[in-house]
Design goal:
By secondary structure, this protein is mainly α. It has six helices and two strands, in the order αββααααα. Strand 1 and strand 2 form a beta hairpin. Its main location: membrane.
Length: 192
């Protein structure tokens, strides 16, 4: 249980707090920003989401720099990302800030990749995330943060940055899923 793995576990433990912030009807007020209103609870949840997302970069950087990459880390890190992103996307649908069909595609891709990883694990193979997967995760994190912030600060100028980022994240989610399966299809083909 090295420091990067502890950071990853901390990210997982922040997820219930994040869910509570968006699920419990806290009446902390709201800010009028441009053409929209930003509930303070959503703002706090967005800051927590951004912090948790930043720990993804921190644990990976620390693990690589100090040669602390472990199979546990290779398993936990993408799991933490999937849990955080899935929770956020489902809550965004409930809040009416993201279309359900986009979220269904994104989460379906995550289940498919996780299934492939489980087959690989059964064969004694650990499949780490590639660069395309990291780009997918980054675009998802930016898109989700922008939606949680109700498109702040772009709401001042009426530019739909959050919506555009969600569709960019969808594009990279599909592309990285196809790439992941093409590169690792041998695991399915050769499994017993």
């Amino acid at each position: 249980m090295n420091i990067p793995n502890r950071i990853t576990i901390s990210r997982i433990l922040l997820i219930p707090v994040f869910i509570i912030l968006l699920s419990v009807p806290f009446n902390w007020g709201e800010w009028d920003i441009g053409e929209t209103s930003l509930p303070i609870a959503d703002f706090v949840a967005a800051i927590l989401f951004i912090f948790a997302s930043a720990t993804d970069w921190v644990d990976g950087y620390y693990a690589r720099k100090y040669n602390l990459v472990t199979n546990l880390g290779k398993f936990l890190d993408p799991l933490a990302d999937k849990l955080l992103v899935s929770a956020a996307l489902i809550l965004l649908v409930e809040m009416g800030l993201a279309p359900a069909w986009v979220v269904i595609i994104i989460i379906s891709r995550e289940f498919a990749v996780t299934g492939l990883r489980l087959v690989a694990a059964g064969e004694g193979i650990v499949l780490a995330a590639g660069n395309m997967g990291k780009l997918k995760t980054a675009t998802q994190m930016v898109g989700i943060a922008a939606l949680l912030l109700h498109n702040f600060p772009f709401s001042f100028i009426g530019f739909p940055f959050a919506t555009i980022m969600l569709y960019i994240a969808l594009f990279f989610t599909i592309l990285s899923g196809v790439d992941y399966f093409i590169k690792n299809w041998h695991v399915m083909r050769d499994s017993k």
